[in-house]
Amino acid sequence: MRYLLVEDNLELAEALMSRLVLDGHAVDHAATLAAAEDCLAAALYDLILLDVMLPDGDGREFLARSRTRIETPVIVLTARSQVSDRVGALDQGADDYIMKPFDFSELEARCRAVLRRRGGAARNQITLGGCLFDPLSGTLSRGATVLELKHREIRLLEIFARHPGQIMSKAHLMDRLFSYDAAVTENAIEVYVGRLRRRIETVGLKIETVRGLGYRIDTGAP
């Protein structure tokens, strides 16, 4: 998943980015609303983590403006404890909020819940060609066979699993897996796809190469 973090506290931003990247996500950071606007003009995001008080304006006003052109889910990060502040953020288009200071495990859980709701799912698990894929535990299982996937494998399979049958170009996969400052090429995507392909073939799933277009997952469904 690719996240946009809009937060002017650099110490907090670095801590959040380190944890999210460790979990296999790509994260772009904007310390101002102007920088956030630039990011949104240049890339598509799966989730936005938005601070309220920023050097060049109020994050809630930015949220209200952005809702006229994007549907990306937004979690507001706020130090304000008034119920009216939280209600206001939700009314202006936030999908959820979390109070500062917060435990990172709670933020992770809220991110997962928001993404599930947007995807129309009630649980973390995804059924995929007779297998059960759990992005939270990082496992892919069929019967008694359970594969434990690495972070990048989890995020790559999650992209395919949420878009079964769709062709994913190398450029799209790069955009979803890596942030702006990551020095990667399409060759890196080939390597990651190759590794994942070999792993999941052991439980009957296949990743097809569509020449000149990209990749798609074959679940064996008719």
Can you walk through the features of this model?
The two termini are 28 Å apart. The protein has helices at 10-22, 33-42, 59-66, 83-91, 104-119, 151-161, 170-177, 186-200; strands spanning 2-6, 26-30, 47-51, 53-54, 57-58, 74-78, 96-99, 126-128, 131-134, 139-142, 145-148, 206-210, 214-218. The longest helix has 16 residues, at 104-119. α6 packs across α8 (186-200). It is an alpha/beta fold and 222 residues long. The chain is globular and about 50 Å long. β6, α4 (83-91) and β7 form a beta-alpha-beta unit. 41% of the residues lie in helices and 24% in strands. The mean pLDDT is 88. The strands form 4 sheets. A 5-stranded parallel beta sheet has the order 2-1-3-6-7, sandwiched between helices. It folds into 2 domains: 2-119, 3-Layer(aba) Sandwich (Rossmann fold); 126-218, Arc Repressor Mutant, subunit A.
What structural keywords apply?
222 residues; alpha/beta; Arc Repressor Mutant, subunit A; 2 domains; 8 helices
In summary, what is this structure?
This protein has 222 residues and is an alpha/beta fold.
Instruction: Provide the gyration radius in Å.
Output: 18 Å
State the shape.
Answer: globular
Q: Tell me, what is the CATH class of the largest domain?
A: Alpha Beta
Number of strands: 13
> What are the low-pLDDT stretches, counting only 5+ consecutive residues below 50?
none
What is the CATH topology descriptor of the largest domain?
Rossmann fold
The CATH homologous superfamily name of the largest domain equals Response regulator
Helix/strand class = alpha/beta
Mean pLDDT rating: 88
